[in-house]
Task: structure prediction
Amino acid sequence: MKNTPATSPLSSHISSPSQFGPDRTTFHSSATPGHRLPPPPPPPPRPPASLIQLQFAGSAAKDPRSVRRGDLSQVAAMINFVLLISRQGKVRLTKWYSPYTQKERTKCHLLHLISDDISSMSSTIIACREVIRELSGLILSRGPKLCNFVEWRGYKVVYRRYASLYFCMCIDADDNELEVLEIIHHFVEILDRYFGSVCELDLIFNFHKAYYILDEILIAGELQESSKKNVARLIAAQDSLVEAAKEEASSISNIIAQATK
Amino acid sequence: MEQLRTIGRELAMGSQGGWGQSKEFLDLVKSIGEARSKAEEDRIIARELEHLKRRLADPDVPRRKMKELLLRLVYAEMLGHDASFGHIHAVKMTHDEALPLKRTGYLAVALFIDERHDLVILVVNTIQKDLRSDNYLVVCAALTAACRLIGEEAMPAVLPQVVELLAHPKEAVRKKAVMALHRFYQRSPSSVSHLVSNFRKRLCDNDPGVMGATLCPLYDLILEDPNAYKDLVVSFVNILKQVAERRLPTSYDYHQMPAPFIQIKLLKILAVLGSGDKQASGHMYTVLGDIFRKGDTASNIGNAILYECICCISSIFPNPKMLEAAAETTSKFLKSDSHNLKYMGIDALGRLIKINPDIAEEHQLAVIDCLEDPDDTLKRKTFELLYKMTKSTNVEVIVDRMIEYMINITDHHYKAEIASRCVELAEQFAPSNQWFIQTMNKVFEHAGDLVNIRVAHNLMRLIAEGFGEDDEGADSQLRSSAVDSYLRIVGEPKLPSSFLQIICWVLGEYGTADGKYSASYIIGKLCDVAEAHLTDDTVKAYAISAILKIIAFEIARGRKIDLLPECQTLVDELSASHSTDLQQRAYELQALLGLDKHAVESVMPSDASCEDIEVDRNLSFLNSYVQQALEKGAAPYIPESERSGVISVGNYRSQEQHETSAHSLRFEAYEMPKPSLPVVTAQGSMSMPTTDLVPVSEPGYYKEDHQVSRSQPSGDALSGEFGVKLRLDGVQKKWGKPTYSSSSTPSSSTSSQQASNGGSHSDGGGSTSSQTRESSYSSKRQQGTEVSAEKQRLAASLFGSSAAKADRKVHASRKTAKDNPSAEKVAVNNTASQPVKEQVIPAAPPPDLLDLGEPVSSSAPSADPFSQLEGLLGPTSASPVVSETPASSSSKTPDLMSIFSDDVQTGPNSGSTESTLGDASLLNSQKGATAGAAKKGPSLQDALQKDATARQVGVTPTGNNPNLFKDLLG
Result:
């Protein structure tokens, strides 16, 4: 297996919608020479995923035979979190949407699965780390021809590989997996349009911009905008303001500089 | 070109420090990328955090530099490190006037904290101010942050502004305002409930983006109360139609599909609105048909829409044409090479078989393929499908498969789930007692600590009560086979605690019943169990109680019993135990040894575990005593509720307990103390567990009371009680309520103790034992010569009618597998259009086609179910087919016989139970239980008899698990 440089375009094959899943994400490394980052080392040996001793006896209470749609306790955010990890298991972006059902608020928090006490932030972070570690173990080990879905602790994780980067979204068990797969692709296409043939390095150095774009696509775990054009327009408007502010700042500093001379 | 771009990037990075970042950040990222291990990465980040801490504390940092520091902080936290020291700086940055900085501040705050964090209070004011800003980008940033940061308490502060923004001229703002309001609704429905009408208004927004966003809150609202939104059905259908006809701007197109995400959301909404509503569904058929016709199976997104269509069709009022289209698409999914599509196909199939079980028939081989696929996800999904289509005819194959899979996985979560499914299916559809117990043994052996303790109690009760038949012989045979199997298993290491409890209980109760094993042998085994599990008090308690019972039975039989030395040491050890419960049991045992035969017989009657305990709730046997006391001048009893000025201690205590168990602060005012129930009824309610499961702790005195009334039914109850009390004086509990041990129950330990002990034991997978079992198991399975032949046989056993068929020779099974669908199609085709139409009337759904191997039985539904029942009650008691012979034997009987039995089985099924319960049985497990109980054809007649006798006696089964009881009693 070749090492995949981070500069490879994530979506050099984005425009082939008929192709499916991991097939499309096969990486053409020959086209990208001279990457700046050295090829990342092989992933360090990680302990197996099932580290946490938890009691799951209660979790079996939910009766899967009942009608899935129309079940009121299922009202929750559609996407519980978004996770971008590299093939080496390095985190590139995480966004946690806290899903709440209307009745049991705290209990349904995803991270409660991992840790009972998420009131303090540091334990939240530990819980997040645990989730990431578990999932990267689960997803990175999967073969290329398998489903793009993984069942995980009563949730489902939909993932898709673009070059060396895995885009993962965690959804409730009864959501439309194919739709989420396409939401991921929608996100990647917008990233691609914004960065111009986006690659992993873009996302590493401009992770905040990726966050801004994600915020325009998903809000509170729901898809808020399905038009690429609209998202692009809004992001451009925000960027132009940043540019304007930059120029302003530089001109002010010029003025100050000149005045102090 | 690619090269040029990369070079350009590197140039840019070299000259001005990457994409607008400083050299420091670049170096950080680089060193992280070069890090060889997680530990090294952690070290780098720790150093970076130290650095950032120093820099952020510096008051003279320029604001733009501050922005970068903040981003580095975000980066560190993203990699899983605690950067909480910097959160306050992010909050500060949101106050900044300049939008880029403000935006960074909001981004960081939203990533760092959520609405439960203390710092949120400092942001609310800023959000409030920014929502009023002239610059719509500022408003957008504030709205995005509000979705994450505004909790229930802060909601009133921003709510009016958000509502105002719903009418903002910019569509982006309107859209975000809708989403924010939706989020508020999710957090606290009550504080937004008066504003939900706004969502309806926004549905008519000119901008499709706003309209699309509005569908999210509407979906939630409709899920909650579909009836309030029935008037919108036509509008939704119209919108969907327009979207499908490409009326929306092309910017919403995605891979040549017109606004697919909006279509999917609309389909989800329609599925809810049309569920069980014929009129509403009527509006949808045309547009759904259109979408199917236009469906693009080549692209992913096209399939996503088609899948959602299938979901919608399976949820709304069924329409034959629609179902046909859905089935066709499903078969395309299943035939696809893509695993994703197969997965969706399995899921869709699971939805469609609820309406028409016949659909599964033609896909049997595809399903088997998926079941044997190396892809775990697909496999699990297929198990879910099998679980949905389990019937009494295929339960053995399916549960065996499930257990086989369960043994091999390590994922606790899924293991627990699949174990509980196995249990559920076995309880519901078990063809025979032996099979049930064997299955349970397997489940307990491999996932004992993951399944509910309730299940263990059920199993014990089943062994105790038998199958609810009058045939004592079969019951005792069952018990001795259980004893046999447990004696085999008990020596194995690492058995789960709950399984050991069952073993101990059964050995104690029935170990010596058939005389095959000597008492000392069983006692020796039980001592081994107690010694091997030193830390598990519950198991020890079960073991010592079992020993006690065996000794009691021996004494009652008039045999001399000598305690084995190891047993004596065990008793000595336990009587000095820290656990008072164990101590008590040990003392009880010692006390019992000193009693004579008659006393032991009345204290520990043999095989009394299923005797019904009648509780005299009024404590009428005390009347004479009370009368005497009153005559002697004692004050009459006043119920607590009627007393005034006296603090009701019991009530107070219970409240206290409640609070400590809740472990949380209560903000609302204390409520007035409720008048407590009169003591009599309170105790009556305490006695409820006695009708419950067998081994749950029971208040000792009821037990005793019962024993007294049984031993001396006509005599003076009072004196009888004293008599027993005197004899068992030494056994009285030292602390707590003055109760006496209920000696015939295996466990008088409190249920809380049981729960804690049950959980504390690590799960013993018993890997070695599992492997041996498994290997023998798989070798049995591998007898099939060809893979495909085996698959077909499996398919036949899963989808075909009877287990007997699965046992036929390979060539025969292949023939049936091939013949079955076609033959049935002919049979079905006659009725095909009819059943689907008939589904309209819930009273008469089509006969259960999966169940019908033989076309003969399809004639059954026409007969009057009641006359059939009557017929069953009469002469059939002579028929060997009907009586509950173990199914294993029936599966070995010649084909002719099995056909006959099938006929009898399915006849009344489709006639009586299926017609009333229909497909609803699959939707609801509770209902499914009743259906399952009735579905067990052979026991129908017995069930009726049993029910009649039960009614005569006046016992109505209650308890935690109605399923099993219904199974047993009908």
In short: The longest helix of chain B spans residues 810-838. Chain B touches chain A through 130 residues (CB under 8 Å). The domain at 459-603 of chain B is CATH 1.25.10 (Leucine-rich Repeat Variant). The radius of gyration of chain B is 35 Å.
